[in-house]
Amino acid sequence: MFLRFRLLLSELSKFQQTLLRTKQLHALILKLRLSDDPFYATKIVRFYGMSGDFDYVCKVFDGCHHKSVFLWNSIIRAYARARRFNEAFSMFSGMLRGETRPDSFSYACVIRACCESSDVNRLRLFHGGVIVSGLGMDPTCNSALVMAYSKLGLVEEAGRAFSVISEPDLVMWNSMISGYSCCGLSVCSLKMFVEMQRLGESPDGYTLVGLISGLAGPDSIRTGEGVHGFCLKSSFESNPHVGSCLVNMYARFKCMDSAQKVFAGLINLDLVSWSALITGYCQCGEYEKASYFFRKMMGTIKGRKVDPILIASVLAAAAQSANIGMGIELHGSVLRCGLESDVMISSALIDMYAKCGLLGSARRIFENMPKKNAVSYNTIIQGLGLYGLASESFRMFDEMLNAGLEPDSCTFSALLCACCHSGLLNDGRELFTRMEDEFHVRPKVEHYVYLVKLLGMAGEFEEAYQLIDSSPGPVDPGIWGALLSCCEVQGNSEMAEVAARKLFETGAEKGAYRVMLSKVYARDGRWSNVNELRDEMTDAGLRKMPGLSWIGGTGTYS
DNA sequence: GCTAATTAGC
Questions:
Q1: Is the pLDDT higher at A542 or at A348?
Q2: Other Cβ atoms within 10 Å of A335 Cβ, number
């Protein structure tokens, strides 16, 4: 018997190394009559669940007649890890129907799955199940509940699950601290951090990650620096999780010098820490530095896999800043990494070239894509629209439909935007009706804004007003704002007053709207109204920023 | 065997 176990174990590790076909392993298990041993079944389910071979996992699971809690938990976990939540949940129901009772880990696992699938109703159901099965005071279940509720934004319920436990353990404290951070309640999270230490519990890396990730906004800079000091004192700064969290925190504060200092102090740089630094520079608009560190990273991590998501986000930064040099360099990296056939990367490249003024390159990449999805089409439609090539945008739209792809709300934004750039009112009207009637895409604020602009610029103010008035639900101030700006251009003072009244009713106190209205008044020579508005603005402390032009390189006031 | 870090293309 012992020999059989030894043999299987050595085979297992060999399989892990050489990745031989699983069928042979199954044959071996059958031969050794180990298929009914829950210990080995659990091991196999765990290992092959990771590699995603669920046919095999199921075969082993079904072949085992004496299912232990461990075996059940490992198959539920395997499905949940693979984000196959429905299968995880139905396994759990299967467990409830059978003889093996779920334990705290089974519940913790499905609770987490509820959180990851944003299923609040099911989460409440499992919470009930936890209480009914006598696990209401169990720390494992309650930490899972705290995490799940807070990640779904239900802080109060998370707090309730926390307070059930009279003596919270470290995990429990950590869950609550990161829970408060998730919900933007960094003050509560800090209070918990102090409280746990008062009660004699020492924080670990998880605690600090939870605490740090909640610190955002200029008010928290001092706190952040204090927590950073705590990390230095207790030598948590070298923990890779804590370190990249600190880098990210300083990036949020727009203190890239501090972020860079933390980064420089990290011992083991991994992809996450690099990404935290690079995307930090992108978010702060320091594209040169972003591209410098990106280059440095590519030189350092040789051999290891490059993260396509990171490249896509740096490409987006190049597109936004219309930095063609950076864009071309990134394109080179894409080619070197063999990522050119990645759909996400290609769309980012198309967008970058279009926004940098090289429509031809954008088109070429699009044409050469072996597989196109809705995002690729949306990107090229938008790019063409940007250049005033509306009819080509429409052609792409038809091609997209012919390819059997479903247009979404972004598709219609891109199309309506193309109409705006070319002043195609009739096409815009038609698209707006088709999007809901034919494609069941509900128009959003941006779609209304585009159509209102189209109508307003064509002088169709009555229709624009009707459109806004007939839209369901409360009207976003941006839509009235779009109408008002058209009134300003067209000099329609009656409609301008209507739109402005609506805007001020909704409490949109943007100085720009008042300026627009006052311009319309000025055009009509209604100076008393102009002065009234100006006075109101000075009283409210709303000042118009003086116009500033950067054309020519030196800021010239206009 | 419960809790943790980054980025996500239009």
A1: A348
A2: 10
- Euclidean distance between the first and final Cα of chain A, in Å? 90
Protein A348 CA to nucleic acid B9 C1', in Å?
Answer: 5
The token duo for A520 is 């319309």
CA distance A4 to A8: 6
The Cα–Cα gap between A187 and A181 comes to 9
Residue A548: helix, strand or coil by DSSP? strand
Nearest amino-acid residue to B10, taking CA and C1':
A379
The whole-angstrom separation of Cα A442 and Cα A277 is 38
| Predicted confidence band of residue A17 (pLDDT cuts 50, 70, 90) | very low
CATH topology of domain A446-543: 1.25.40
Question: What are the residue boundaries of the structural domains of chain A, listed by start?
Answer: 446-543
Among protein residues, the one whose C-alpha sits closest to the C1' atom of B1 is: A105
- pLDDT band at residue A42 under the 50/70/90 scheme: confident
User: Could you give the CA distance from residue A60 to residue A105 in angstroms, rounded to a whole number?
Assistant: 21
Give residue A5's pLDDT band: very low, low, confident or very high (50, 70, 90): low
Nucleotide closest to residue A355 (CA–C1') = B10
Report, as an integer, the average pLDDT of A535-555.
58
Of A61-75, A77-91, A151-165, A509-523, minimum mean pLDDT range: A509-523
Q: What's the rounded Cα separation, in Å, for the pair A421 and A430?
A: 16
